[in-house]
Automatic annotation (TrEMBL):
Leader sequence segment: none
BP GO annotations: amino acid transport
Keyword Heme: no
Domain (ABC transporter): residue spans on this chain: 2-232
Name of protein: D-methionine transport system ATP-binding protein
GO cellular component terms attached to this protein's record: plasma membrane
Residues of the full protein shown: 1 to 232 of 353
GO molecular function: ATP binding; ATP hydrolysis activity
Amino acid sequence: MIKLSHIKKIYETSSGPLQALKDVSLTIDRGEIYGIIGLSGAGKSTLVRCINMLERPTEGTVEIDGQDLTKMNEKQLRAVRKKIGMIFQQFNLLSSSTVYENVAFPLKLAGTDKKTIREKVMPLLKLVGLEQKAQQYPAQLSGGQKQRVGIARALASGPSILLCDEATSALDPQTTQAILNLIKKINRELQITVVIITHEMKVIKDICTKVAVIDHGVIAEKGPVIDVFINP
Ligand code: ADP
Ligand code: ADP
């Protein structure tokens, strides 16, 4: 369902061109929890941002359900992006909006009416265990609760793909485990394909079905987690 073919990404920087991705090809099947692991600066974030075209690849194609996103204009991309939710290490919540308003935000942007918004937001808050926190502000929440809001917001437009950019890296081990369990539940119950980028082996071993190891903009290895990381 997600097919990246021969992706190159060059950033123009003040000290010259920087090749963040060099000929990356990757296929992610429907229903998978696909991990992308590598050191800081390896190109993970660039790679995942190419999936929703937050970054346009310099070369190569990005296909989702057979449609090539690199050939689309901004209007077409907006429609496809509804299929792709994203969560971040620093949560990226609106600090002067309530939990409810944060989750409602993408729907409001899309022009959804208030009644429909309410019918979508409350079940999402229930799904992530925050129905009692609808009127709180992000500053009143723990890190784990903030990421739950991020997850609910990412699911608001009914995506079939969830991209997770170091989503548990700012959380303690116990909270990380709870968020990973929630992501697993979302994958299973809502049939959402998940792509996780991380520098933590534990995240890969805990919930990923497949993994790609990225190093200096190149995929060093990829395959089922048990094949790539053989446990003694
Ligand atoms: P990772 O997520 O694995 O830490 P990134 O994809 O963020 O790696 O970065 C890969 C390389 O591209 C790094 O050398 C980084 O400095 C560079 N890079 C990332 N984003 C930009 C940008 N917007 N402009 C210039 N260079 C960038
Ligand atoms: P507006 O678009 O004028 O901001 P909304 O109806 O979107 O009005 O929301 C007004 C306030 O009511 C917001 O603070 C929101 O958090 C809250 N709110 C709206 N619907 C619900 C609901 N079903 N449960 C809890 N809070 C809600």
